[in-house]
Write a structure and sequence with these properties.
The complex is a heterodimer of chains A (about 110) and B (about 120). By secondary structure, chain A is mainly beta. Chain A has no helices and eleven strands. In chain A, the strands form two sheets. In chain A, strands 2, 4, 5, 6, 9, 10 and 11 form a seven-stranded mixed β-sheet that branches. Classes of the chains: A mainly beta (about 110), B mainly beta (about 120).
């Protein structure tokens, strides 16, 4: 199965700054890449699918890019509610697999 | 409102079996795959399996084959996860989630998540 590697494990960012999260697949998944946000005590929330399409209701400060094996989630102008853990998931090969997550914390 | 509501927390002993329910509402239950994902304490997400309520076509992770059974009751729009021979390392939060498409293979994003069911396995 495809291994998803996220980096860094933890990212310290000041409010108002930009956060750049990476996700790498062990083999190509084309554009079949999904990003979720998870806050403590909550279920994951869908942010991005198809590598770059924002889910319903997701603010424009969240953007996704990449294809093949290298993907990026960018969060511009970080708000207090954006400090959370972010997971990537590949939806290109069976079975689907998730990364181990990147924690975005307040600097 | 589209939602998935899961059954409550469980405490089990090693070797016991577990059944978790996931009741769907606000959409046509038979039109979307329902998956199960678990999250061990402080860890990431692990895909466990998936089922299409329309015809009960179910698949589970190879690493869990033989331990997991996924089923549905269309009359109540409820999906079930049965897990046998629990071990301490199965202690985790278990989530059901709806796949946002109904295509085959069931590879897509999970757009609706249940609130989670905490399962503790301890002697």
């Amino acid at each position: 199965e495809i291994v998803m590697t996220q980096s860094p494990a933890t990212l310290s960012v000041s409010p108002g700054e930009r956060a750049t999260l990476s996700c790498r697949a062990s083999q190509s998944v084309s554009s079949n890449l999904v990003w979720y946000q998870q806050k403590p005590g909550q279920a994951p929330r869908l942010l991005i699918y198809g590598a770059s399409t924002r889910a319903t209701g997701i603010p424009a400060r969240f953007s996704g890019s990449g294809s093949g094996t290298e993907f990026t989630l960018t969060i511009n102008n970080l708000q207090s509610e954006d400090f959370a853990v972010y997971y990537c998931q590949q939806s290109g090969n069976w079975p689907t697999t998730f990364g181990r997550g990147t924690r975005v914390e307040i600097k | 409102e589209v939602q998935l509501v899961q059954s409550g927390a469980e405490v089990k002993k090693p070797g016991e079996s577990l059944t978790i329910s996931c009741k769907a509402s606000g959409y046509r239950f038979t039109d979307y795959w329902i998956g199960w994902v678990r999250q061990m304490p402080g860890e990431g997400l692990q895909w466990m399996g998936i089922i299409y309520p329309g015809d009960s076509d179910a698949r589970s992770s190879p690493s869990l084959r033989g331990l997991v059974n996924i089923s549905v009751d269309k009359s109540t729009s409820t999906a079930y996860l049965q897990y046998s021979n629990l071990r301490a390392w199965d202690t985790a939060m278990y989530y059901c989630a709806r796949l946002q498409s109904s295509t085959w293979p069931p590879l897509d994003a999970f757009d609706i998540w249940g609130q989670g069911t905490m399962v503790t396995v301890s002697s």
